[in-house]
# Entry
Amino acid sequence: MKFFKSFLASLLGSFVALGLVTLFFFMGIAAIATSVNFEKKEGTWIKENSVLELDLDTNIMDRSPDFNPFESFSDFGAGVAGLDKILGSINKAKKEDKIKGIKMHSGLINSGWAQAREIRNALKDFKTSGKFIYAYADYMSQKGYYLSSVADSVFMNPMGVMELKGLSSEVLYYEDFQNQYGVKMEVIRHGKYKSAVEPYLQDHMSEENRTQIQGLLDAVWTTLRDEVAESRGIAAETLDALADDLIIGDAEEALAQGVIDGVVYEADFEDKIKAALAIDQKEDINTTNYKKMDVRIQEYDKEISDRIAVVYAQGPILYTEGSEDIIGKEAINNAFQEILDSDMIQAVVLRIDSPGGDALTSEIILNASRTLKGKKTLVVSMGNVAASGGYYIACLADRIFADPMTITGSIGVLAAFPNISGMADKIGINAEQVSTHENAIGYSVFEPMGRGFEKSTINAIEKVYHTFKSRVAEGRSLDMEVVEEIAQGRVWSGKDAISVGLVDALGGLQEAISAAAKLANLEQYNLVTYPKYEDEFERMFLDAFTKVKTKYFQNPIEKYASEFIELSQLEGIQTRIPYSIKME
# Structure
């Protein structure tokens, strides 16, 4: 027996040692590759007569993810791209004489609408250089076509599939489910539009919720439709008719309706690129990509000392340290403090992509931004969504920029508590309590919500809601009565948010950076990014594991079930957007 124990222990130790050696070997290679790439920053490595290859059939994040060795040597880590590097590569390609055009694949891009529009605007600016953009796809989603339509020519596979159908949003309601199974959410909210919890209170959509969703969808559709119409020279009414009747379903019909320029196989598309480069059909195309360029928005100039800090706030707001995809008080506050301590940083752009979250954390971050604003220029750039807590942390900025397709506002407060008292009765579970005071138990999932706990929670929500409105009134120089009219949990598109005074101007990250430079009287500057995160072994492993699970093991039912349990995972009073609004 001792022999087998020793043998197994030795075998396990060998595997662990081998795994660590392999890991550090690959990390060493990656470090060498990174250093080699760093030496190539001056652009001498770009070959003459090249094209920038933009493969955007991937997941897009605002900020490029940090290097993770667990992801870098597997297929599940390669599918994430940073908007900052995509924009940086397009900007550099515009100025680089050796790059003659862009070859793009974006038919299946996985991004928010606002991110897609920022890339599209950068491509539109690229075209002012006189260089070409050719786009190709086997499958063309609606968002992919919106992005591709800015190209000089759009091509598809002869058997390709395309969608042009307008926008829709689906909301699941759980009242009957809760009544049947005895599992429910106890809900308290302020704001008639604060519909994050509406699905737990009724079995149908309220008129207020329908109004806000319809307004949001109409605003986003109008923007994308009009921009496609302008690029393609097609009447907006024609695009509406094509979407209404689902006229376009494949590449041949797309060509017949004039929404694309050609139906070819990818090899023939390559020949068109060669023709544009005026090279022989037998020659290879010289290409580069945003990973090789490794430029975040703009190139760094060592001769320039002044800096603008871009602080990325991505994900839900939680009372935690924070990470690349979670907004935590420590990470953001530490970033603000580093910026305050730096004499070279003259301005800050806070880039927000968040549905909101914990109210206390939102207040803590906002208070830190107040201190920062007193000493540095502070501009906010809203991405796909900056709503509820996401808007809370933005409202004191000197200027706020939003994309027309940004989801923002949602000035309201909610609290939701999971309750299984009905199910407990059905399966024979009886919870008994012994207390010294009437409300000592607080809240129990096995009992209906007590009057004392409910009253206490309502008072807390009212206080947070009043504070939220007062912060907006302060930051936006609005009367409290005006804030109340535009609050009540209602979401707005970026386009509509201007008219009600929630944002100052339409524009993306680059426009916000330019505005920050102007406010700080900077003609030349470098960009630096925050927060800075430690490359913790455990965090890298868990991040990689989560992506594997999501990609390979998530049951389709789990996707919908997660919407039901999402609020039960949140603690405390929440300044959070009405559910996950998905516009497809």
